[in-house]
Amino acid sequence: MTSNARVWLFGDDVNTDMIIPGRYLDNYDPDHLASHAMEGVDPEFASKVSRGDVIVAGVNFGCGSSREQAVIALKHAGVQAVIAVSFARIFYRNSVNLGLPSIVSSDASRVFHSGDSVRLDLLSNSMESEDGSRKAALEPVPEYLAKILESGGLIPYLRSRLKS
């Protein structure tokens, strides 16, 4: 599945308080969380992000507290995937559980810039600029995790498994 996306580039060690500041956790409504997504690092992100955009980041994306609201904020803001050099373990697991692809790429954060238009193909593990001049390889998602992501997260996956 190939999709066109706009890149939002962030650096290393983007923590969950940057993704969704703790002061907004008094209301767990996904739309409320989405309206404050990435506010700790880019106050304009939530008002400018479009459905299908991707976040590209450096190392240790999602470090900090284990709040699943960080993933909910990004997903409901319209982010289709997060591509990073590495992820904090709990953020990665929360993203799988909630159906937000978090894909490792050692070079995407060096190849792409904020605002770039890219073609993202999670099936072929590739990301390239619209003109094809710049490319980044994406690490394949293990098959068992891909099935959870394809289902929309762990709960929908388990529901479908229990029905069959």
Structure notes:
The structure is a single chain. It is globular, with a radius of gyration of 15 Å. The longest helix has 10 residues, at 89-98. It has 164 residues and is of the alpha/beta class. A 7-stranded mixed sheet has the order 4-3-2-1-5-6-7. 33% of the residues lie in helices and 19% in strands.
Second rung of CATH, namely the architecture: Alpha-Beta Barrel
Query: What is the molecular shape?
Result: globular
Q: Can you tell me the CATH superfamily?
A: Aconitase, domain 4
CATH level 1 name: Alpha Beta
* Secondary structure tally: strands: 7
- The whole-number mean of residue pLDDT values reads 96
What is the quaternary state of this protein?
single chain
Poorly predicted runs of 5 or more residues: none
Radius of gyration (Å): 15 Å
Q: Please indicate the count of domains.
A: 1
Structural class: alpha/beta
Number of helices: 8
Major sheet: arrangement of strands = 4-3-2-1-5-6-7
Order of helices and strands: EHHHEHEHEHEEEHH
- Portion in strands: 15-25%
Largest sheet: 7 strands, mixed
Assign the CATH topology.
Aconitase, domain 4
Please estimate the helix content. Answer: 25-40%
Indicate the topology.
Elements: E1 2-9, H1 16-19, H2 30-34, H3 45-48, E2 54-57, H4 69-77, E3 81-84, H5 89-98, E4 102-104, H6 108-111, E5 117-121, E6 126-129, E7 135-137, H7 143-150, H8 154-163
Parallel strand pairs: 1-2, 2-3, 3-4
Antiparallel strand pairs: 1-5, 5-6, 6-7
Helix pairs in contact: 7-8
